[in-house]
């Protein structure tokens, strides 16, 4: 009888252990898009970022077109959202230009790029995005600097 009890306890422990490991594996396997909170969270990031950029005197000179009407601002937010969604493993289809073409001739400076990254960090902090996901998003967007800041 004792052996039976041990056996079943062992089975329960093993089952629990595999469940815990399975849950951890599922969490690890989730895309950044999902861990950020999916479509609505990414739309909020893009929308808040554009709002913040338009108020930021260090960079808003570049965004006269987006600032010209609420329809323009909405179109830009939507493109930025699709771009972030697609690049974090989400089910979106970004149809805008690649980063070199989109920023060609705009004379974006290194300082302006860094200011936009600071705005993004402020938005992510404000939305209480956890530090791991914040770091991973910045690791995806940071290296775009070379394509966006052009000589
Ligand atoms: C990681 C940083 C950045 C990302 C991911 C990004 C992404 C994008 C995307 C997806 C578009 C739309 C392209 C299209 O319509 O085909 C865009 C447009 C644009 N970007 Fe960036 N960008 C970044 C940084 C910057 C910076 C630092 C500046 C200037 C300070 C800038 C200025 C612009 C402007 C002026 C447009 C056109 C907006 C409009 O249509 O009104 N971008 N960007």
Give an account of the 3D structure:
The protein has about 150 residues and is mainly alpha-helical. It has 2 domains: about 1-30; about 30-150, Globin-like, CATH 1.10.490.10. The protein has 9 helices and no strands. Helix 3 crosses helix 5 and helix 3 crosses helix 7 (about 110-125). The mean pLDDT is about 90. The structure holds protoporphyrin IX containing FE. Protoporphyrin IX containing FE binds next to helix 4, helix 5, helix 6 and helix 7.
Task: Give a short summary of the structure.
This protein is mainly α and 151 residues long. It has nine helices and no strands. Helix 3 (38-55) packs across helix 5 (70-87) and helix 3 (38-55) packs across helix 7.
Low-confidence segments: none
Report how far the terminal alpha carbons are from each other: 79 Å
What is the radius of gyration computed over CA atoms, rounded to a whole number of angstroms?
22 Å
- State the helicity in percent bands: over 70%
The total domain count is 2
Count of strand segments: 0
Text of the CATH class of the largest domain? Mainly Alpha
For this structure, the CATH topology of the largest domain is Globin-like
Question: In terms of structural class, how would the helical and strand content be classed?
Answer: mainly alpha
